[in-house]
Amino acid sequence: xxxxxxxxxxxxxxxxxxxxxxxxxxxxxxxxxxxxxxxxxxxxxxxxxxxxxxxxxxxxxxxxxxxxxxxxxxxxxxxxxxxxxxxxxxxxxxxxxxxxxxxxxxxxxxxxxxxxxxxxxxxxxxxxxxxxxxxxxxxxxxxxxxxxxxxxxxxxxxxxxxxxxxxxxxxxxxxxxxxxxxxxxxxxxxxxxxxxxxxxxxxxxxxxxxxxxxxxxxxxxxxxxxxxxxxxxxxxxxxxxxxxxxxxxxxxxx
Length: 254
Description:
By secondary structure, this protein is mainly β. It is built from 2 helices and 18 strands. The strands form 4 sheets. Strands 3, 4, 5, 6, 7, 8, 9 and 10 form an 8-stranded antiparallel sheet that branches. A 4-stranded antiparallel sheet has the order 11-16-13-14, with helices on one face. Strand 13 (169-176) and strand 14 form a beta hairpin.
């Protein structure tokens, strides 16, 4: 998908492209660790119902970084789609925070996808773009892996962790750099909430202290006490600003 668009809450045009692999089948539970509705970001959920006769009633549970939870009921007509404006829903919820995760459950199988348009304000410039991901089919998993990651100048990498459970989860995030150099962070994620890790702030000090480490990084995410959902957003200004944009991916669970 290629786009050139504008949003009232985003300062300037938004251009870019996104690609996503379809899911093998509709489901009744979809999880999104990433989500942001602050200035210069606009988030949507697209809910598709492929059944020829049954209406799907879905609950969009917005889980904020302060522990607040806002469940919103959405109906999706047969062989139709509904676009859910997460920014608008968050603006109407007094306890909302810009950072949030989402769980979508439905009485009949649907497919849930998240679109995010942005102008990410990096220190050297504003980066326009958009990301598009299909949710992690529920239930949440115990481990995730990410092969790709980069934290050198012009790149900003994050890891978002969603805990959809009603008890806190302890998570081990292990980062793998060049020449067998690793570092680990232990993170506690409260019930039905979201935590964001700035991967640059973890990797760069290691790379500066040991030049053999480099700035490329892979990650493994392991829930030590239950289950978790993990996504990796990354924003970039490549070749001195010739290529601008962002990507996002849910971790591999195989």
